[in-house]
Amino acid sequence: MSTPPKPRSLPARVLGSQAERLAEAQPPRAGRIVAYVLLFPLGILVSLCGCFVQALWPPFGMILSVLASLGVFYGGLRLTGTRLGAGVPLAGWFLMLLILMSPRPEGDFVLSADLTSYAYLFLGAVGGVICATLPTRSGFGFGAAGPGR
């Protein structure tokens, strides 16, 4: 008799293991490149929307904004199967934040200096880096070359 497998926690089921990531089929290179091109502006858009939503409904807006950002980062990772898939929307996210944090000549700014803004910046950045370091089908940006890839 074999013992039944131990039930896995919710994060383990969602994120998977390195063996499971490596067993998945690699998307075609052209599809990955198209995904990279689309993920960058998506990261910009999520960052822009997140800055307004986190300030609109504190603290629930901040939680919603961070979850949306993490969803884009993790979705890029799963879509492309590469760490670059999480890094590209993260780069767009950071670029938009740099623009939104700079003060305007009129003295206006989008991202204020309060606790929810700092939490949004910190949790989004840490979550993006975590997504970019999760196990993937390939450790390289565009994926490993090989037959059928």
Question: How would you describe this structure to a colleague?
Answer:
The protein is an all-alpha fold and 149 residues long. The chain has a domain at 27-103 and 128-140. 65% of the residues lie in helices and 0% in strands. It has 6 helices and no strands. The relative contact order is 0.19.
Task: Identify the notable features of this structure and list them briefly.
single chain, mainly alpha, disordered C terminus
Could you tell me the number of beta strands?
Answer: 0
Kindly state the percentage of residues in helix: 55-70%
Gyration radius, in Å: 18 Å
Provide the structure class: mainly alpha
Shape type: flat
* Order of helical and strand elements: HHHHHH
Q: What's the gist of this structure?
A:
The protein has 149 residues and is mainly alpha-helical. The chain has helices at residues 10-15, 18-23, 29-56, 60-80, 84-101, 115-132.
Furnish the topology, listing elements before pairings:
Elements: H1 10-15, H2 18-23, H3 29-56, H4 60-80, H5 84-101, H6 115-132
Helix pairs in contact: 3-4, 3-5, 4-5, 4-6, 5-6
